[in-house]
Specification:
The complex is a heterodimer of chains A (205) and B (252). In chain A, a hairpin with a 3-residue loop joins strand 12 and strand 13. Chain A is α/β, with parallel strands linked by helices and 205 residues long. Chain A has an 8-stranded mixed beta sheet with strand order 2-1-3-4-14-13-12-9. Chain A has a 4-stranded mixed beta sheet with strand order 6-5-7-11. A two-stranded antiparallel sheet of chain A has the order 8-10. With 252 residues, chain B is of the alpha/beta class. Chain B is globular. Chain B starts with a strand and ends in a 7-residue tail after the last helix. Chain B has a single domain, classed as Alpha-Beta Barrel (TIM Barrel), CATH 3.20.20. Classes of the chains: A alpha/beta (205), B alpha/beta (252). At the A-B interface, helix 1, strand 8, strand 10 and helix 7 of A face helix 2 of B.
Chain lengths: 205, 252
C-alpha cells in the first residue's frame, strides 16, 4: 500500500489515479498510523513553500515523515520535493524538512537566458546525470524522455544528490535522491507514460 | 528546452463533446471521458475542457465527468467555462483540474484574476480571450463570442498578465472554425505585448502546415484545436512527426 500525504495542499486525484492505474493500492491520508503501515510514501505539493510547510507542521506529521523516511521509500513531488531540502527563499526564508542537503531558490535569478519565461512550465527532456543511469528509479525510463514541469523556484547546491536535470539555459534540478528519499521537481503523474513508468519503478523499490 | 505543446480542446455540453464553427451550429461529437483517454494515449501534451452548459443540473454532470477524466488521464488538464468566482475555481480544482481558464467571468469582474492568482498561484490562472477585429482594432468579445465588450484586446491581456494571469489562450473569432491557419497577426501582437507568459494559439488550425507555420513565430508556446483532432482529420502522432521533421521540438 502506497500512502499519499494529505495535508490540504492541492488536488490528489491525478496522483492517486496514476498510482492506481499501475495496479497499486493507494490511500490518501493524514494519519501517522497509515503512514507507518504503508510500504511507500508520496509527498505531493503545490503552491508556496512557506504555506505548505506551515500546513504540514499543523498536521503534526513532520516528525512522522522524518522517522518514516529512514525506513521506507519516500517520493516528494514538485513542491513536495522542495520541502525535502533544508531551506527555501520563496517569499522569505523558510526551513524545510532537511532530508536532503540543498536549498530552493528563484529560478529567474539564475537563468542565463533572461528571455525565457518563468514559471518553467511545460514538457522538458529529463537527462540522467552520468553515472546515475542505474538508479532503480530509472529502471523503465530512458534519459531524454520528456516530463512535465510547473515551477518558479528550483533546488540548488545539491549536485551530490542530483539524479537528473532538464536544460533551461541552466541545468534545472529534476530528480534527487538521498538514501530512501527521492524527489522530482516535475510531475510524474502529469508526465504521460514516461511519468507512469517512473512511478512504477518507485513503487517497486 | 521546453517543447511546443499540442492541445486538443473539448467543449462539453450536457455531458457530450461538441464543436462549433464560428461559435454557432454545435454538433455532437463523442463521450468526453473516452475522448480524453484517446488523446492521452495519442500523445496530447495537455487537454482543455470547456463547460458550455447552461443549467446547474448539467454543471453537476460536468464536474462528475471532470472527476472521471482526471482519474483517467496523466497529462495536465485545464478547465474553463462558467468560471465566475473563487468558488468556481475551487469546484473545478477539487475535481482534478490543474489550471483554470477564465474568460467572461473576468471581463465582468476583473478582480477575479488577482484574487485567484493570490490564492492558487499565477500558474493556475489561464486568461482566455475571444478576439475579433472591429474597425481595424482587436476587440475582446464576451459570452462565447456573441457580445462585443468594446475593450481593446491587447490592453486587456496586458492588464491580465500584470495582475496574475500565468498563461494566455488567444482565440481568434475571425479564424475560428475556418481552418485556414492561425491568426498570426493577432498572435504576434499578443506575443510582443505579453512576452513573459506562455501563449496558446487557438482558432484556425486546419492542417499540420498551420502548426508548422505557427511555431516559426517566437513567443508562441502551444497550439490548440478541436474539430480537426476530433474528426481525426489530423492525428496528434502525425502532427508531431511533421513538426519534428521541420525541426520543431515536440514530445513524441
Amino acid at each position: 500500500m502506497l500512502a499519499i500525504v494529505d495535508y490540504g495542499v492541492g488536488n490528489l486525484f491525478s496522483l492517486a489515479g496514476s498510482v492506481r492505474s499501475l495496479g497499486c493500492e493507494v490511500c490518501v491520508t493524514a494519519k501517522a498510523g497509515e503512514l507507518a503501515a504503508a510500504s511507500h510514501i508520496l509527498l505531493p505539493g503545490v503552491g508556496a513553500f512557506g504555506d505548505a510547510m506551515a500546513k504540514l507542521e499543523s498536521t503534526g506529521l513532520v516528525p512522522v515523515l522524518r522517522a518514516q523516511a529512514a525506513q521506507k521509500p519516500l517520493l516528494g513531488i514538485c513542491l513536495g520535493m522542495q520541502l525535502l531540502f533544508e531551506k527555501s527563499y520563496e517569499y522569505g526564508v523558510h526551513a524545510g524538512l532537511g532530508l536532503i542537503p540543498g536549498e530552493v531558490c528563484p529560478l529567474a535569478d539564475d537563468l542565463a537566458d533572461k528571455t525565457l519565461k518563468v514559471p518553467h512550465m511545460g514538457w522538458n527532456a529529463l537527462d540522467i546525470v552520468p553515472g546515475r543511469e542505474n538508479d532503480p528509479l530509472f529502471r523503465y525510463f530512458q534519459s531524454g524522455e520528456h516530463v512535465y514541469y510547473v515551477h518558479s523556484y528550483y533546488a540548488k547546491h545539491c549536485a551530490a544528490h542530483t539524479l537528473a536535470t532538464s536544460g533551461y539555459s541552466l541545468p534545472v534540478t529534476g530528480a534527487v535522491r538521498s538514501g530512501h528519499v527521492y524527489g522530482t521537481q516535475f510531475h510524474p503523474e502529469k508526465s504521460g507514460d514516461a511519468g507512469l513508468r517512473l512511478l512504477r519503478a518507485f513503487a517497486e523499490l | 528546452m521546453l517543447t511546443k505543446r499540442i492541445i486538443p480542446c473539448l467543449d462539453v455540453r450536457d455531458g457530450r463533446v461538441v464543436k462549433g464553427t464560428n461559435f454557432a451550429g454545435l454538433r455532437d461529437m463523442a463521450d468526453p471521458v473516452e475522448m480524453a483517454r484517446m488523446y492521452n494515449a495519442d500523445g496530447a501534451d495537455e487537454l482543455v475542457f470547456y463547460d458550455i452548459t447552461a443549467s446547474a443540473e448539467h454543471r453537476a454532470l460536468f464536474t462528475d465527468i471532470l472527476r472521471r477524466v482526471a482519474e483517467n488521464i496523466f497529462i495536465p488538464l485545464t478547465v474553463g467555462g462558467g468560471v465566475n468566482t473563487l468558488a468556481d475555481f475551487d469546484r473545478v480544482l477539487k475535481c482534478g483540474a490543474d489550471k483554470v481558464s477564465v474568460n467572461s467571468g473576468a471581463l465582468r469582474r476583473p478582480a477575479l484574476i488577482p484574487e485567484a492568482a493570490q490564492r492558487y498561484g499565477d500558474q493556475c490562472v489561464v486568461l482566455s480571450a475571444d478576439i475579433k477585429r472591429v474597425g481595424g482594432a482587436f476587440h475582446v468579445f464576451a459570452r462565447g463570442g456573441r457580445e462585443d465588450t468594446g475593450r481593446e484586446a491587447l490592453d486587456w491581456l496586458g492588464w491580465g498578465v500584470a495582475h496574475g494571469a500565468g498563461e494566455l489562450v488567444v482565440n481568434s473569432i475571425d479564424t475560428d472554425g475556418v481552418r485556414a491557419g492561425f491568426d498570426l497577426e493577432l498572435l504576434d501582437a499578443v506575443a510582443a505585448r505579453c512576452p513573459g507568459v506562455p501563449i496558446i494559439a487557438s482558432g484556425g488550425a486546419g492542417r499540420a502546415q498551420d502548426f508548422i507555420e505557427l511555431f516559426t513565430h517566437p513567443g508562441i508556446d502551444a497550439g490548440l484545436a478541436a474539430g480537426i483532432f476530433h474528426e481525426r482529420k489530423l492525428t496528434i502522432p502525425e502532427l508531431k512527426k511533421a513538426l519534428r521533421a521541420q525541426g520543431v521540438e515536440v514530445r513524441l
